[in-house]
Design a protein that fits this description.
6 strands; 0% helix; two-stranded antiparallel ribbon; mainly beta
Length: 59
């Protein structure tokens, strides 16, 4: 999942190979910092985990 600075969801997928192209509703987004979050289940322990970070979109 990718969110804008106001917490609005702008991209979501369950496909590990899917890529975000820097758009939202077919409109190019401006250069800014965007928040990413990955929810996963550890295949060995079965433990649910959430990872978060930032990506800088620069044009």
């Amino acid at each position: 999942k990718i969110f804008n600075r106001w917490g609005e969801l702008i991209f979501s997928t369950n496909d590990f190979n899917a890529k975000w192209d820097g758009t939202y509703q077919n409109n190019a987004l401006s250069s800014d910092a965007y928040i990413w979050k990955i929810d996963l289940v550890d295949s060995q322990s079965g433990e649910e985990k959430s990872l978060k970070g930032y990506v800088l979109l620069s044009k």
